Amino acid sequence: MLVARTENNLLQPVGRKLAMPHPIWKRTMFIQTQDTPNPDSLKFLPGVSVLEKGQTMDFPSVSSAQCSPLAKLLFRVEGVRSVFFGSDFVTISKQEDAEWRIIKPEVFAVIMDFFASGLPVVTDAKPNPDTQFNEDDDETVQMIKELLDTRIRPTVQEDGGDIIFMGFDDGIVKLKMQGSC
Which chain positions lie within coiled-coil regions (predicted)? Predict the structure, then answer.
């Protein structure tokens, strides 16, 4: 029997016999992974925006994830220790005794299902402190913040983490490392 595909991808008979329509499976999201320098952390790249450009959010525990439906779902995956969001990635850190071969498929499924749902990634977003200039910053602090923003943060974010300026006292720069750092 000859069949032809119609506009909506259903099989239709050409001749006398009827054909049953076959479902056509489409991949709605292709998630890539990227290793990080930390073997217990893996960067997931869903191909869609996770947060606004330049924004990051760190969830070191399930209790810190109350403002994010996605983070809460990821913490349900057995073996997930922490979750970190960047503008276009999700970094998962696993418990030492957990295995990626078990965790990865579950994380893929959670991320795919979540983005298909259309829910917001965060509900009551309180962005992390960042390196924006303040009026009361002296010249040294402004140079430190510019260096962090232009040279250091992009490199650290490539590895699935972030670096946040916390202060400068007595010649010591205080930073907070997040994600897979």
Answer: none
Tell me the per-residue pLDDT of 118-165, one tens digit each, with 9 for 90 and over: 889 998 755 444 556 667 788 888 888 878 877 787 777 777 777 888
Token readout for 54 is: 């330049």
Delimit the CATH 3.30.1370.70 region(s) of the chain: 32-117
List C-alpha distances in Å: 76 to 4, 126, 167: 45, 22, 35
- As a whole number of angstroms, the distance between CA 112 and CA 134 comes to 39
Torsion of CA 24, 29, 35, 38, to 10 degrees: -120
Interatomic CA distance for residues 57 and 11, integer angstroms? 47
pTM, two decimals, is 0.62
